[in-house]
Here is the input.
Amino acid sequence: MNELRKNLGEANLELDRCMSCGLCLDDCPTYTTTGRSTSSPRGRMRLMMNLIKGTIDINDKVPYTNVSVRHELETCLGCLGCNTSCPADIQHTDMFECLKMMFFKNNPQYKEQLKAFLKEMPIDNPKKFRTLMILLFVAKRTGAIWITQNTPLKYLLPSTKRNMVKLLAKKIPYRPSSRVLSGFNPAIGKKKMRVGVFLGCINDHMFAEVNIAMVRVLQRLGAEVLVPKTEACCGAIHQHMGEREISSKMAIENCERFLDMGVDTIAVNAAGCGLRVKAYTRALPHHPVIQKIGPKFKDIHEIIWELLEMNPALKNQWIWPGGKERYTYHDACHLVHGQGISDIPRKLLQCIQGLEYISLKESTMCCGSAGTYNIFHPELAQKIQSKKIMNILDTKASIVAVGNSGCSLQILSGLKEKGKSNVKCYHPVEMIDISWRKV
Ligand code: SF4
Ligand code: SF4
Here is the structure.
């Protein structure tokens, strides 16, 4: 505890810059769900100040509640909503991330938790991860996964494991996208750009169709696309859980893969990975490979928009097949709050003829996915998810566009629980690809 207090004090978190204006409250998913001021950005900062002063202990109960100080701090989603709304420009996420890392340093139980997570979900080891995906594919085909979810045998699995299997089962692929895309994919028509593609670990397997659509769209827009043979995880999960060294190693490996490719830019289609790879240069300011390659990472929407600006006539080519449909757009936290990207995906989708856009209430509010949050805090994640799903259903849209795989899984599972599996969830790049296939 003393160690935690000392580290927090030394981290220079500028907690005293909070003016208590409360403008962050309504944008905080945990505060709007629990109604407790201690689970708001402002409240969490006060808890941290009191921890540093030593007037409270991390295991104390928050007055008039049955939750602990630790719980209030740990259940921050890291969604960055408060970063956007705070007029004092306090970097809350850096703050809460720093706090979580300190929890790690001071609590071996967390390291064990991460180890256990990586044992079950070896995203840091592509070979093991691929084997796991094959096993899950077989389990899904043989009905073994159904048994783990729908019979009394489900009680043999702890709820976190059951939730993970449930999430994975939804998207187990036949084959990873790297099998199809690795190597050189030529531009269609005149070459305008040379683009590297970061496929990601989970995305390579569970969102193979998004990666394939992304490369097809880039090629049609005049980009030649290079895909490395092997890729690793971006390191975001390790970073969030305080494993900075592993995360930095992954950053270096990821940048080295693109070193000799001579690419103008590197596309990422998952908002969470995008935010992490864009932060490589800040995390390792003195590493030559990182400083050379890091600035090339861009979100796929940014690259598509750049390519469209080079040939605006292509904007009129996208036609949604099968008649008029209504869609809405959910802003993934790590895209809107983390990368400041919200207009470009909307502008791209508005180029598609045959679709009607309906805006989503609280579109920039987190869906409760937040990396591993829905695995470690399933109850709160579910409440936050429910609110998002109700807002989606209120739009009466038949399509939800989402630029992040984690959000996509969370929204799909929420829709299924409400008996609305007919509502589709697409990445914007898939929607562009579908609209273009018929032309
Ligand atoms: S990061 Fe999100 S959950 Fe955490 S305090 Fe800020 S708004 Fe609330
Ligand atoms: S918006 Fe910023 S300054 Fe205002 S209460 Fe929240 S953290 Fe404090």
Remarks:
- The first helix runs from residue 2 to 10.
- Residues 18-24, 41-42, 85-86, 88, 90 surround iron/sulfur cluster (ligand 2) (CB under 6 Å).
